[in-house]
Design goal:
Immunoglobulin-like; 18% helix
Length: 823
């Protein structure tokens, strides 16, 4: 109870899917100030410190305090409070100073006086609508808001949050599928996260109307926002995961290559696609079935004529190490008295949304359809039971599409705003809400129901759910993708900023339809897309009905060979990728990251280096992918590496970029003080990748699926650090499927290296943690950037083997500590 009479300490640990523990601080009694409540001109400002670096700001008319509830936030974090020191006009924490002016304007600064955010005017109200106006400087850059098209930096743009079915969206299209009202503001190298916890049709303007202002507003709902201070962007991302949950650890197979199409039309065609992957030695882990596997597009049915012996087909695919993922759209065919169980059981349980007191019926793929009322806890539980037969048949994952929700009624393409949802949910008042309030969370609650239902049916198996629509916090339940993109060079280019902003918004596991969904990619475009997607979190090739083939073997042996090589590289890097996925399940750092996340101070004036380097991103903490900013062009393009020593991933070439990046003055780059960018000549079969010095990257032999045990050695690629620096790396392993890692069934092993005073390179392998048995019996330590003439362990001398990248030695491994010296 938080009513001032009785206060309990929050639970010390809350387990999420990936194993993150959310440590909640004790809620303090009212006698300990945790913020300030001030009423100015009939408007109340309630600013509370959740932690020294996290503020919650609630503003409301003094006579209309809104309900204190959230679909996005984790309750233990949202309810945490931290003691503050009151000051004349506000308060301070050990990190921040909060000031409220006489007219109700809020200013937040660090303790050095650097203003992080400042109101340009008091919050403005127009009935139930509100508008917040902040001062914007020329140094401000904005990132996040999910999969919105456009540049990585949102500065100068404006966006609407309203989940929308937008087939064939273009770079100027807004809104599209997801509403994640969270962004990171970078100002002079300092990061501040901002989350507006409002589910209505919110609006963000980052300087389109006025270049000295940015605003966020909504037509209704609470004015309730959170400020997450860094100053480093990594810390903001850690805190965002603390507030809303990280992306949980997926099943290992979800990181493999996945093949889909709208649609594989029969069992025969599906099995032929699987057989072609195996005969062509192209690694793959999953095949997807779109709506045509169902009877008349009705969810949770199977067309027995085209897919006879469905369960047998699933088992046949499983024997070939393929996982099957099936679509399960949320629209339930309106079929009273026709023995259609999803409708009959849903109607009997009163699980459908209402309009004018009757079940709302709208046209979608099956024809007239009804829609589950996912804001009811009991409805989500019912929805989960519908997966029982598919789970029993062995289906591995589920795809929640069309859940904006999409309805074939134009121009709205969704439910009318007066459709009624019944909220029956812990933490919320039981009440009825209009669709205008629920629309943006409807897809998230659909994926939540699927996730929780599948988990109930397979309690010790990690669910795999993909959703098209979602809201902040939806990463707890599902992976996502960027929806119905197009087979164009521009959409290939657009993929990188979309996935980076999704990662910054919490969705670390995200992808884009490889090759583009709408249209038919020319051979070179499909090849380049398959190459790039090999270094993205979800690697799914998908295509619209009627388009030409998208499978990797399309377009002949020359293109197939290039595509196979890059997919194979992804599987070689699977230990690195899975280790990174496990990291993000604990700390919220996305798998692919803008450069400024790892290198926030890479430029002399602290502007994000990404502004100079579109097309570049970090794949995990150590690999930099440098695709062309205009991938269809044939002219050389610039690659901007952060300051330091880098290595060419493919050749091992050492690149010393230690000179500082030049400052920019009035957008004129001064080049005399910095190294010029690297110029890269585009080639069809080459994607530039660089590794930063000091990285230790674990790799494995190529397998045809993640279910196949690698045959050979674990390779540790040690990229020699610069003078006076050290290096480190890690590998994480478990069974790739269950939650047994929570009980010690995992392996974690760290690696370090350093340059000794005599010039020797020392590599140390720590004793492994956990009780999971690794697949490798030997480790191959390959050093790059260090000319090794000899090597030794504690017990013997070893002659290094010369490789195309450097030198290597092979040593036995039983999980114990080892020390290897290269000289």
């Amino acid at each position: 109870m938080l009513n001032g009479k009785k206060v309990f300490a929050l639970s010390a640990a809350v387990f999420l899917g990936g194993g993150l523990r959310v440590q909640a601080q004790q809620v303090l009694p009212p006698s300990s100030p945790t913020g300030i409540v001030k009423t100015v001109n009939g408007v109340t400002l309630n600013v509370q410190a959740l932690r020294p670096d996290v503020l919650r700001v609630r503003i409301y008319p003094a006579d209309r305090q809104p309900e204190d509830a959230s679909w996005a936030m984790l309750p233990p974090s949202r309810l945490t409070r931290f003691p503050v020191t009151l000051e004349e006009s506000g308060f301070r924490t050990p990190v921040l100073r909060v000031t409220i002016s006489a007219d109700g304007r809020l200013t937040v600064a660090d303790l050095n006086g650097n203003i992080l955010q400042q109101d340009a005017a008091p919050a403005a109200w127009d009935g139930g609508a509100f508008r917040v106006t902040k001062i914007k400087t020329g140094d401000d850059h904005f990132f996040g808001l999910g999969d919105k098209p456009g540049p990585l930096d949102r500065a100068g743009e404006a966006f609407v949050m309203w989940n929308s079915d937008t087939f064939g969206w273009q770079e100027s299209t807004d809104p599209i599928y997801k509403s994640i009202p969270f962004f990171i503001q970078m100002r002079a190298g300092r990061a501040l996260g901002v989350f507006l916890d409002n589910t209505y049709r919110t609006f963000f303007d980052f300087g389109r109307e006025r270049d000295d202002r940015y605003t966020f507003s909504a037509p209704a709902g609470p004015l309730d926002y959170y400020l997450l201070y860094g100053p480093e962007p990594k810390h903001v991302l850690n805190t965002w995961a603390w507030l809303t949950g990280p992306t949980p650890l997926p099943p290992l197979w979800a990181l493999g290559f996945q093949q889909s199409r709208y649609s594989y039309m029969s069992r025969k065609e599906t099995e032929e696609v699987a057989a072609r992957f195996r005969s062509g030695r192209i690694p793959a882990d999953a095949i997807w079935l779109d709506i045509d596997f169902q009877q008349k597009n009705r969810p949770f049915t199977i067309d027995q004529d085209r897919f006879p012996g469905f369960a047998d087909m699933v088992h046949t695919l499983s024997a070939e190490q393929f996982h099957l993922i099936t679509i399960t759209d949320l629209h339930v065919a309106y079929l009273p008295n026709q023995n259609y169980a999803p409708y009959d059981t849903g109607k009997a349980g009163d699980h459908f949304v209402k309009r004018n007191g009757q079940d709302y019926i709208g046209p979608v793929w099956p024809g007239p359809s009804v829609f589950p009322d996912f804001t009811q806890q009991q409805t989500r539980a019912w929805w989960g039971t519908l997966y029982k037969q598919l789970v029993a048949d062995g289906v591995s994952g589920f795809w929640n599409d069309m859940n904006e929700p999409a309805v074939f009624v134009y121009p709205a393409k969704t439910m009318p705003g007066d459709v009624q949802h019944r909220i029956e949910e812990p933490g919320f008042a039981t009440r009825t809400a209009a669709h205008t309030e629920i629309h943006n969370i409807y897809g998230m609650e659909n994926s939540r129901a699927t996730h929780d239902g599948v988990l109930a049916l397979r309690p010790n198996e990690r669910p795999f759910v993909m959703t098209r629509a979602s809201f902040a916090g939806g990463q707890r339940y599902a992976v996502t993708w960027t929806g119905d993109n197009s087979s164009t060079w521009n959409h290939l280019r657009q993929t990188t900023p979309q996935l980076l902003n999704l990662g910054l918004s919490g969705f670390s596991l995200a992808g884009a339809d490889v090759g583009g969904f709408a249209g038919s990619p020319p051979p070179d475009l499909l090849t380049r897309w398959l190459m790039l997607a090999a270094f993205q979190p979800i690697d799914r090739d998908h295509a619209v009905k009627g388009s030409r083939p998208h499978e990797p073997w399309a377009d002949g042996p020359e293109q197939e060979a290039i595509r196979r090589r890059y997919i194979e590289e992804r599987y070689k890097l699977m230990p690195y990728l899975y280790t990174t996925a496990e990291e993000t399940s604990r700390d919220g750092l996305p798998i692919i990251r803008p450069l400024f996340v790892e290198f926030p101070h890479a430029t002399a004036d602290n502007h994000p280096l990404d502004l100079d380097a579109p097309g570049e991103f970090m794949f995990g903490p150590d690999l930099l992918v440098a695709d062309s900013p205009s991938p269809e062009e044939v002219a050389p393009y610039e690659v901007h590496l952060p300051p330091g020593i880098w290595y060419n991933y493919w050749t091992g070439e050492r690149l010393d970029r230690s000179a500082p990046i030049a400052a920019r003055d009035n957008e004129i780059r001064e080049t005399t003080a910095a190294l010029p960018p690297i110029m890269v000549q585009p080639k069809l079969d080459e994607l530039p990748i660089y590794v930063r010095a000091g990285a230790i990257v674990p790799m494995q032999p190529v397998t045809q699926s993640t279910s196949e045990v690698p045959n050979g050695l674990l390779t540790l690629r040690v990229y020699a650090p610069g003078p006076g620096a050290s290096c480190s790396g890690e590998i994480y392993q478990d069974d790739g499927a269950t939650y047994n890692f929570r009980h010690g069934a995992y392996l974690r092993q760290s690696f370090t290296c350093s340059i000794a005073a005599d010039g020797a390179l020392n590599v140390d392998v720590a004793k492994s943690e956990g009780n999971f048995t690794s697949w490798w019996k030997e480790i191959r330590v390959e050093v790059i950037g260090f000319a090794a003439k000899s090597a030794s362990t504690e017990s013997r001398a070893i002659t290094p083997e010369k490789t195309s990248l450097g030198s290597a030695v092979t040593v036995p491994s039983k999980g114990g500590a080892m020390h290897i010296t290269f000289q």
